[in-house]
Amino acid sequence: MQKLGKIIILGGTGFIGSQLSAKLSPLCDHICVLTRNTDTNKNLKLIPNLEIIQTNILEQRNLNTIFTGSDVVINTIGILNEFNEDNTFEIMHFELTKKISSAIKHNKIKRYLHISSLNADPKATSRYLITKGLAENYIQSETNNFCNTTIFRPSIVFGEADSFFNKFSTILKYSPVFPLACPNSKFMPIYVNELTDFMMDTIKDNKTYGQKIDVTGPNEYTFRQLIDITLKALKIRRLIIPLNYTLSKLQAAIFQRLPGKLFTIDNFLSLQIDSCSKEGFKGKLSLEDIVPGYLNFSSKQKHFENLRKKSGRSE
């Protein structure tokens, strides 16, 4: 890839964003990672060429200023649950996308990569999928008029510091009995390294300009199968109780009132649509190739060791 100048990454302290930051570091002059808290991911400071900028990303003036002189903007921000009035699906998925688009237009930036979600659709029943879909439509109807955009629509993204297998492995370690909602919901998980490699490959690929691309792994799994893979990787046994539609919805109604919102009605609604696709980009690595290798270790430590290696820094 021809060396780039300045790259902006929103959500760069997160799971996918930190992978991109490490991989893009040798390929650009300057990476700006925008965050509301510079202490969120201190290990990113080890990556050459990278600047962590503390700012309110919801302020249009801040984005307009920070985007100055940028060649590429990448948005990896997404939330699975709403926790307060400043972190709603509407604000973080749709309104933020409009603000990013405005800052891109203001600074005449010509390349934008956006992570959405498989099944994103303004006509969905889940607010998560609705707002992801509204953002996609806005990008394709408005942002495409002045910028080359590409939208990535992954299923579950897994890897050393993921929030899926690491979360369920923690729960299963301490729960001898596990009532599983929506056990037959289907997914095609994609390995984070393959997702980020593909995203990087598209930056200069004009065939991907203006496109929405489904991004999945090679295999299809039910939710129950994902839990079984987790148990096998941990080398433990647990009593898994599959819940039907009514009990799954009841569990969501109860759990969304608990601290941490482990499972909500909106999550339940999202799970009514299989997160699978026959189109788009297909990764080659399966869960069985990767997951057992990190669930038995400190995923966070391993994750950042990998980041340093990818960025060419080992000390």
Any overview of this molecule?
The chain has about 325 residues and is an alpha/beta fold. It has a domain at about 5-160 and about 185-215 and about 275-285 and about 295-310: NAD(P)-binding Rossmann-like Domain (Rossmann fold, 3-Layer(aba) Sandwich). Helices cover about 40% and strands about 20% of the residues. The chain has helices at about 15-25, 60-65, 90-105, 125-140, 165-175, 190-200, 225-235, 245-255, 265-270, 285-295, 300-310; strands spanning about 5-10, 30-35, 50-55, 70-75, 110-115, 150-155, 155-160, 175-180, 185, 190, 210-215, 220, 240, 280. The strands form 4 sheets. Strands 3-2-1-4-5-6-11-14 form an 8-stranded parallel β-sheet, sandwiched between helices. The protein has a two-stranded parallel ribbon with strand order 7-10. Strands 8-13 form a two-stranded parallel ribbon. Strand 4 (about 70-75), helix 3 and strand 5 form a beta-alpha-beta unit. The model has no long low-confidence stretch (mean pLDDT about 90).
Kindly list the characteristics that best describe this protein.
alpha/beta, Rossmann fold, two-stranded parallel sheet, globular
What's this entry about, in short?
This protein has 315 residues and is of the alpha/beta class. It contains eleven helices and 14 strands.
Topology:
Layout: E1 4-10, H1 15-24, E2 28-35, E3 50-54, H2 60-66, E4 72-75, H3 89-107, E5 111-115, H4 127-141, E6 148-154, E7 157-158, H5 165-174, E8 177-180, E9 186-187, E10 190-191, H6 192-202, E11 211-216, E12 221-222, H7 223-234, E13 239-242, H8 245-255, H9 265-270, E14 281-282, H10 287-295, H11 299-310
Parallel strand pairs: 1-2, 1-4, 2-3, 4-5, 5-6, 6-11, 7-10, 8-13, 11-14
Antiparallel strand pairs: 9-12
Helix pairs in contact: 1-6, 1-11, 2-3, 3-4, 5-7, 7-10
